[in-house]
Amino acid sequence: MATTVSAQEAKELAFSTIDAQSETLIGVSQSIFANPELGFEEHFAHDLLASTLDRNGFDVTRSAFGLQTAFCATVGTDGPEIGVICEYDALPGLGHACGHNVIAAAGLGAAIGLAPLATKLGGRLRVLGTPAEEGGGGKEFMIRAGAFDGLTAAMMVHPADHNLPTMKTLAFQGLVANYTGRAAHAAASPHLGANALDAAVLGYNAVAALRQHIRPAERIHGIFTKAGDKPNIVPAEAEAVWYIRAATTAHLEELKPRVLSCLEAGATAAGCELEITWLDPPYGEMVDNSSLLALYASNADLVARTFDSEAPEVVGSTDMGNVSQVVPSIHPMIAVAPPGVSIHTEEFAVHAGGESGDRAVIDGAKAMAATVIDCWADPGAITDVGSSRP
Ligand SMILES: [Zn+2]
Ligand SMILES: [Zn+2]
Question: pLDDT-derived band of residue 248, with 50, 70 and 90 as boundaries?
Fold first, then answer.
């Protein structure tokens, strides 16, 4: 360390700064909660976070890395650089039912707690505002633009119904299947038609048969987004959107062609053409850095957020998985709702915008700030950089 301030003293200083700023932090969480914005449209949250960081001594780049609602805020001039991540997108119809308002405000709190210490301790902090976690994969576009280059470690906290070391993530990619047939009058001349809806339905049923013979963690789910216009017209066009998930990117790559075969079988049977568009970006599985996680766990203990080893896992996909494959990373979960209340429900949103969400903002900020201080003190402690990314 660059000074005589011990890590212990630095943590106490950071905690008291966070406590002193708690009204601001909770205000930010509540404001973002009250103004839910969908992925890549988070202008309110982007502006609020960027201006608050600006006022607290950060060098802020708005609309960073080619994304309108991404930002990058840095402090410190020397030493290991640690990333703290703010998500702030909401869900259609459900608002902040994933509690990203808490993620944003906790990241902001860690940043504000650390800002006065960075130069003193010889460390640097990079706060990254990452849009569109819910399906848009903002972090992957930011990775491609260099947002995470040079970081020693990266972290965020995510709301859940327990305090957990991680989220059980699945690698994920979506696709759009577009079937083209030939329209005809369904009563007068059905023999002249090629039914694109039949093709989509047969593809759907083939996937249903495939599900018996895939690995337990694998998930394939689809919906029809175009299925014809009128019953008396043989549908010339049908469209389905599919999500494919597997435990790892490697397993996902094995599963994808099997799903395609099913969808193509439908097209073949119905005499239709099939066009596949893969949705970009794919999400990678989370690779937790165990030494970074151990540091976070001991700091979470300091704020009475000890991991619950008995609790059921939270399963999902996140673009933090992509980050974890290029930088040593963690994605711990912080309790915001009572046990059994799942993210992406109306009930969860109530807690994310309530007092328990507010408490998680402060505790998450402190646990991350203390973990950054540990990383600054001993960056060599972050080992096992296990990247599965080519
Ligand atoms: Zn979510
Ligand atoms: Zn989320």
Answer: very high
